[in-house]
Design goal:
By secondary structure, the chain is mostly helical. It is about 85% helix and about 0% strand. It has helices at about 5-15, 20-30, 35-65, 70-105. Keywords: Membrane, Transmembrane, Transmembrane helix. InterPro entries: MamF_MmsF (IPR019109).
Amino acid sequence: MDKTNRFLASLNYFSVFFAPFLLPIAIYFIVDQLEVKSHAKKALVSHIIPFLSLIGVVMVLFFSAGADSSQEGIFLSFIFGFLFVGLINLIVGIWNIVKGIQLLIRD
């Protein structure tokens, strides 16, 4: 893979900070190189994971509010949900940075 394609592949991962969905989709359809397309798909999946975790936490909060009417239970669900989503976002962010740097320094 030449330098331009390596840069585009790494840019897919770094785009989590500035264009999480748009850039990997655009690169997937514009670039013809299969390895860049593969990295675009992986980056897109890694950008979707935090939003899915957020949707899951919102659903848990919704159902816990309906099942448990105590404020303490709802508050604990909110705190644990917030920590869970934060941890997922941190892990995905670090993974994207590592993958982007690996592609840039690869020979």
